[in-house]
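Researcher: Structure for this, please.
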Amino acid sequence: MTKKIKKTVTTLSIVFLNVLMSFAGTTQQWKEIKVDVRANGTVSTSNSLKEIENGFQQLSITLSNKGNKSITIERISINILLDAHLSDNLDMVYGGSCMGRTPLLKQKIGSQTNRSSSNMYEMLRLSDGQYLFAGATSWRIFMPNFTLKQGVFEVWSDGEGKQLKPGQTIQYEQIVLRRANNWLELLDQFGTAIAAENKITKLKPADFKGWATWDYYGRVFTPKDIYGNMDQLNQLAPR
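Model: Predicted structure, token format:
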């Protein structure tokens, strides 16, 4: 009986240790997360990380007005400090956006410019072949901008005049973080995370030709739709 109890305790200890090591492996790369809000009043913030599917961690951030006057938000900045040594020759990838406004960008850290950013995600390839990733799964109130500054993942948004009423609390866009060893699987799983966040239960089949946005609209709309819209625009045009 004593031997059985000892064996059970030892087994549980090993399982618990493995869980801790697994959890630590997903969290150690984020050394610290800082949230700063520039506004015409004091905005209280809180942030939390939780594990979601496919190895992602979801970063949730709340903004609160605990005063008795409305506050206008000017800018929100989230600095995600990386627990990794970065050198200028490491590769950085920034995701593209719709209609080719900002094409996918791949460059060395040391050759970044003021256009090195994305509204969707950023991905860094470390010297050991692992990838650090930060991306947005929602774009409801604020437009997130992802960039890398002085070895820190920065996510920032223009406040666009958004007001916080007295006693009001709102949530910043949902951000996901992850470390992975396969960049293609990582991007596929990021797409799944976007669908889950926005309650899209059935995805359309993807046919990767050219750039996806044009292919999508070319497949969905017909000449009847286009000419109908042109007639409407002609009626609205000033005479």
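Researcher: Any notable elements?
Model: The first helix runs from residue 2 to 27. The first strand starts at residue 30 and ends at 39.
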